[in-house]
Write a structure and sequence with these properties.
Its main location: secreted. It is found in: Secreted. Its EC number is 3.4.21.-. The chain is α+β, with helices and mostly antiparallel strands and 377 residues long. The chain has two domains: 39-83, no CATH class; 117-191 and 205-374, Beta Barrel (Thrombin, subunit H). 15% of the residues lie in helices and 24% in strands. It has helices at residues 4-19, 24-30, 48-56, 61-68, 258-262, 294-300, 368-373, and strands at 39-43, 69-71, 79-83, 126-127, 136-141, 148-155, 160-163, 179-184, 208-210, 212-217, 232-236, 267-271, 285-289, 291-292, 309-313, 328-332, 339-347, 358-363. A hairpin with a 6-residue loop joins strand 16 (328-332) and strand 17 (339-347). The protein is elongated. The two termini are 46 Å apart. The relative contact order is 0.13.
Length: 377
């Protein structure tokens, strides 16, 4: 049994908590509530369940007392809603505090957890090696059981695909329908499993298939210029199983300067889109293409570009093309062997591979905050 002296100490302790930092009691008093059925508004001194909570202490004790206030003044006069008042030992339950919002930055892999590859060198306009670009994603349309692959994307953590808004926005996908499938860990869509004979790493696991749980399109997509803010996220219906054939790419820091990051190097674009001989490729294709100065790029897209776009291409006939949309263009850090996504394939001229003509990409570094703001566990 609790002694009167100990009870008084607990009540005074609770009052001290509620009156700390001036004005708290006034706020608490204004927030008093009507007691629910089965509860009675009584002095805190005679409510055993709350006395027990206060005695145990902890960060939620003050919040629990505040939630139960039903009248009274400060000090010994606090009154609370108490079930079976007068010494009940039955537990009292209060709403669980809302957990703090998750910081999206914490959901992006960093260091060796992103951008890793078994290949130190990239291929010039050829079939991609097995396991080389494990972040590549295929977006499927029409029939989930037998999808038509028309866009690409990049895995940025085990639950999200980064892609182009025009690949998922209904105004741009009328002829294709909705995105109904996402595939990771693919190299050759015509074979399962993929077993390149010259690889030396053995066959890859079968690709992983998903359906979109949520599609998030940038709020000002296509509003500031033709296909501007062309960026979207796809939340997968389950977590991807990460490994050698499925691995996220690194997202650049906000404000990354693309030409400084590249220096004299080209960037690499990859996709299963159109080639010079056929409308799509079964095997993932990669090509190295140069950064294109905005001044040169604007001669092909006059008064159409916004600051958040970047251009690549214009050397020979190497280019991204139809079906590559949404896929990433990327390169390694100068000093670390990990790949960072620099851009998203967005738009180009009506014909692909025109010598001297670059294509337009979404500059991902401008959207890091937008990306992290829209991630959830």
């Amino acid at each position: 049994m609790m002694s009167k002296a100990w009870c008084g100490v607990v009540v005074l302790a609770a009052a001290a908590v509620l009156t700390a930092q001036g004005g708290s009691v006034r706020t608490a008093r204004q927030a008093t509530r009507q007691c629910a059925k089965g509860e009675e508004c009584v002095s805190l001194r005679v409510c055993r369940p709350l006395q027990d909570i206060i005695a145990k202490g902890g960060p939620t004790a003050e919040q629990t007392v505040r939630a139960a206030l039903c009248g009274g003044g400060g000090g010994r006069d606090l009154r609370v809603c108490c079930p079976e008042a007068g010494g009940s030992t039955r537990p009292v339950f209060f709403p669980t505090p809302t957990p703090p919002k998750v910081n999206g930055e914490d959901l992006l892999p960093k260091g060796t957890k992103c951008g890793q590859t078994i290949n130190e060198r990239v291929v010039h306009g050829d079939n991609a090696p097995l396991y080389a670009y494990a972040w590549m994603a295929l977006l499927g349309y029409q029939d989930a059981a037998n999808p038509e692959w028309h866009c690409g994307g990049a895995l940025i953590n085990d639950r999200y695909i980064l892609t182009a808004a025009h690949c998922v926005h209904r105004n741009f996908t009328n002829s294709l329908g909705q995105v109904v499938a996402v595939r990771l860990g693919e190299l050759n869509t015509a074979t399962d499993p993929d077993c390149p004979s010259a690889n030396g790493h053995g066959c890859a696991p079968s690709p992983q298939n998903f359906v979109p749980e949520e599609i998030i399109v940038h709020q000002t997509f296509n509003a500031r210029g033709p296909v501007s803010d062309d960026i979207a996220l796809i939340r997968l219906n389950k977590k991807a199983v990460l490994g050698q054939s499925v691995h996220p790419i690194c997202v650049p820091p906000a404000g990354l300067n693309v030409p400084d990051f590249l220096g004299p190097r080209d960037a690499t674009v990859a996709g299963w889109g159109a080639t010079e001989t056929k409308p799509s490729s079964d095997i993932l294709q990669v090509a190295d293409i140069p950064f294109a100065n905005k001044t040169i790029c604007e001669t092909f897209y006059p008064r159409q570009l916004v600051e958040e776009q970047v251009c690549f291409g214009g050397r020979g006939k190497k280019d991204s093309c139809f079906g590559d949309s949404g896929g990433p263009i990327f390169q390694t850090d100068k000093f670390l062997p990990r790949f960072t996504v620099l851009g998203i394939v967005s738009r180009g001229l009506p014909a692909c591979g025109i010598p001297g003509a670059p294509a337009v990409y979404t500059n991902v570094a401008h959207y890091r905050k937008w990306i992290t703001d829209n991630l959830k566990p």
